[in-house]
Amino acid sequence: MPGTSPAAELQAIIRVAHELADISGPVILKHFRKTMPVENKAIGGAFDPVTKADRGAEKAISQALATRFPDHGIVGEEFGTKSGSSPYQWIIDPIDGTRSFIIGSPLWGTLIGVLQDGVPVFGLMDQPFTGERFWSTDKAAYHSVRGGRPVRLKTRECTRIDDAVLTTTHPEMFEGPEQQSALSTLKEKARLTRYGGDCYGYCLLAAGLIDIIIEPGLKSYDIAALIPIIERAGGVITTWTGGSPASGGNIIATGDARLHEDALTMINKL
Q1: Distance between CA 156 and CA 45 in Å, rounded?
Q2: CA 69 – CA 109 distance, rounded (Å)
Q3: Contact (Cβ atoms closer than 8 angstroms) between residue 121 and residue 115
Q4: Alpha helices by DSSP H, 117-194
Q5: Does pLDDT of 136 surpass 60?
Q6: Architecture of domain 161-268
Q7: φ and ψ at 95, to 5 degrees?
Q8: Does domain 6-152 have CATH number 3.40.640.10?
């Protein structure tokens, strides 16, 4: 966006991201809780489902982006990478939580993230069935229901793992002794552990309802949109070694920086 201020660029991105969520939601909902074919993308390993809802939503988002920001790059879970000349790159997961989607559970969402020169600068998670939307701005993060008044998100204080609510999508994600030990170390000390949630869990952390999330083997499209939401709400999200989570990998997020520091220490002693 030549000649445009950074603040104006971000406002344009936020506006378009909301438009994209409005476009993709109906595409997805016409298939939700309906009988449809489910393909398995996995070549060996765990079941990795994809549906025409995933592909239809990503196609609709990509087509809309091409008309609004033709020079921006796009990385999508289903259709891969489209290069662009702009420093901005959109990271799209049309349905994060397809396993939940295909059984009728509402614990899924559409993830729309934006990187600027590889750094996450904006994120949005839309759950069109419940009407919930979570998104970031330059200094804050918000939640709304069916287009209602936005409510500012804020993580809660929790300095000790003994007081923490921990979640992860599923314990079977953790493969091998090192990953399994990381989960068990935190799980054994946490006050409460719950499974399930995918992207929805990270948004609940940003809303101050969950304290810590640990997950292995994520892709950039699983996490890029969630990073700004968590950080603008006051949380911390990194890899297990404290590095940038933008490219995915083994991820740990907390609502309180002090808990994050302690959790990293615990899992890196293993």
Answers
A1: 37
A2: 23
A3: yes
A4: 176-189
A5: yes
A6: 3-Layer(aba) Sandwich (3.40)
A7: -140, 100
A8: no
